[in-house]
Amino acid sequence: MKTRQIVIGLISMAVFFVIFVIPFILVLLTASKTPAEAASVDFTLPERWVFWENLVETVQTRDYQLLLAYWNSSVITVGAIVGLVIFGAMVGYVLQRRDTKLTRGLFFMVLAGLMIPPAVVPTIWLLQGINLFKTLHGMVLIQIAYGLGFTVLLYRSFIATIPRDLDEAAIIDGGTPLQIFFRVILPLLKPVTVTIIVVQAIGIFNDFTHPLYYLPGAENVTVQLTLYNFQSQFVSQINLLFMNILLITIPPLLVFIFFNRQIVAGMTSGAVKG
């Protein structure tokens, strides 16, 4: 039995290495080469390492557009995460604690939001009607709307593991609904909150299609759109293109590596009673 587990573990590690590690090493090596060496895109060490030179040139391209993209993506990600955590936890708490026809209908709408794909053109019309098209705060609201279903589902499942006795004790002590939620329930949601922050932040930061549709304009560029914009400019400079890929890949990768255990714990914590 132990031999079988060891073999399965080794095979899993080998598959992980081939699928994830080797491509990352290829990107790193290509980003460290000169344009002539990088043109072949082969798995070889650079004859001359020019990693820093490529990094500086990539950052300075188009008047430091990559730095602007990092700022825009960070603003969108932080704003959307704050909204998702607050509203998702509130809605999940109400849906779990109150079993009425209204809450069951609302929960069905939450599930529908996970299954029904968003309509791009009506969303653009709506954003234009409320003057939020081509704005960062409009993009924040879009990310909240698209991620709220998944967030509510996780919070509802986790809140089911919290005894109702805590709510009743807080009510007896004279706590208002908001006080009960923010002082009693919300602090207990830390495991699933960390999971939601990490998973949603990576997804929002790496989002390409939604900013492409709802956030046009050079001043609204996000990190993923820089790759799209730089493709034509760096078509003969593959090393700079791969450097751009490396720069927009490292932050989400580091977040996932350091918070991997919290993600698994938060995803499985409410599975039994959810």
Q: Quick one: CATH superfamily?
A: MetI-like
State the order of secondary-structure elements, H for helix, E for strand: HHHHHHHHHHHHH
Task: Indicate the overall shape.
Answer: globular
CATH topology: MetI-like fold
- Structural class by SSE content: mainly alpha
Gap from first CA to last CA: 33 Å
Q: Low-confidence parts, pLDDT < 50 over ≥5 residues?
A: none
Describe this structure in words.
The chain is mainly alpha-helical and 274 residues long. It has one domain (63-269): Orthogonal Bundle (MetI-like fold). It contains 13 helices and no strands. The chain has helices at 2-31, 35-38, 51-97, 101-115, 120-129, 136-159, 164-172, 177-188, 190-205, 209-214, 223-233, 238-258, 260-269. The chain starts with a helix and ends in a 5-residue tail after the last helix. The relative contact order is 0.14.
